[in-house]
Amino acid sequence: SMQCLPGLVLALSSLLGALALLQLSLYLRVPSRYGKHEERLCRARGRLPARCAWFLQELPSFLVPALLLALRSPPRLEPLGCRLLCCLFCWHYFYRTFIYPFFTRGRPFPLQLLFFGMLFCIYNGFLQGYYLIYCAEYPNDWCTDIRFTSGLLLFLLGMGINIHSDLLLRQLRKPGEVTYKIPQGGLFTYISGANYFGEIVEWFGFAIATWSLPAFAFAFFTLCCIGPRAYHHHRYYLKTFTDYPKSRKALIPFVF
């Protein structure tokens, strides 16, 4: 049966941190080419409908930890704090895989980005699942530890902001529409990337609750991956809409 290899956890976490820095260097100045940042010349290339693409991309992050748990003999997660942490990760990706795609109204998604997205979800799903299921060791009272409770509250707050912001974005478009409009309400009153801010808060909350290198590496990757996208969205809105609120920041209310 599979055993915990601390060296493997360290190597995979370090590589994830390096990938985060690579993402930051690639997309800080130029946004990744999909959605509102897609060049017209690229639109004829292979792509899938947004709902199908999001489902396929996010599915491995749910399936891989579930498979790792099923392969463990006996299949157990102890103590309760460890079970809850694994459930939080799978809960996010259950929503992202089986709920979010069927409500999204995004544009067709490039196959190349879908492929890399799936690879990342397999990689990160394995790293987080492997650590929690085979390596993590928590005291029996971890559920009452300040790191767990504060991290859990941040995770839930971030997930709530993320889901609410996605709902506000969906309401901007009628079925079949592909035009972009100014987001209104919720945290969009203060920042252009409210949905991204929510997801960043969510995964830093998870990292604090988990108090592990793999989770902090993933939170850092999330920040480096979608933080620049929030910045480019902000610049797009300012350039496209003359009536865009000048008081809004890109990602962090009242700061940036």
Notable traits:
2 strands, lipid metabolism, 7 helices, 256 residues, mainly alpha, two-stranded antiparallel ribbon, single chain, 62% helix, differentiation, oxidoreductase, sexual differentiation, 3-oxo-5_a-steroid_4-DH_C
Describe what you observe in this structure:
This protein has 256 residues and is mainly alpha-helical. It has one domain (6-37, 45-240). Helix content is 62%, strand content 2%. The chain contains seven helices and two strands, in the order H-E-H-H-E-H-H-H-H. It has helices spanning 6-27, 50-71, 80-98, 111-135, 146-170, 194-210, 213-240; strands at residues 47-48, 109-110. A two-stranded antiparallel ribbon has the order 1-2. Helix 3 (80-98) packs antiparallel against helix 4 and helix 6 packs antiparallel against helix 7. The longest helix is centred in the C-terminal third of the chain and has 28 residues, at 213-240. The radius of gyration is 19 Å and the shape is globular. One of its GO terms (molecular function) is 3-oxo-5-alpha-steroid 4-dehydrogenase (NADP+) activity. It is an enzyme of class 1 (oxidoreductase). It catalyses: 17beta-hydroxy-5alpha-androstan-3-one + NADP(+) = testosterone + NADPH + H(+); 5alpha-pregnane-3,20-dione + NADP(+) = progesterone + NADPH + H(+); a 3-oxo-5alpha-steroid + NADP(+) = a 3-oxo-Delta(4)-steroid + NADPH + H(+). Converts testosterone (T) into 5-alpha-dihydrotestosterone (DHT) and progesterone or corticosterone into their corresponding 5-alpha-3-oxosteroids. It plays a central role in sexual differentiation and androgen physiology. Residues 108-256 form the 3-oxo-5-alpha-steroid 4-dehydrogenase C-terminal domain.
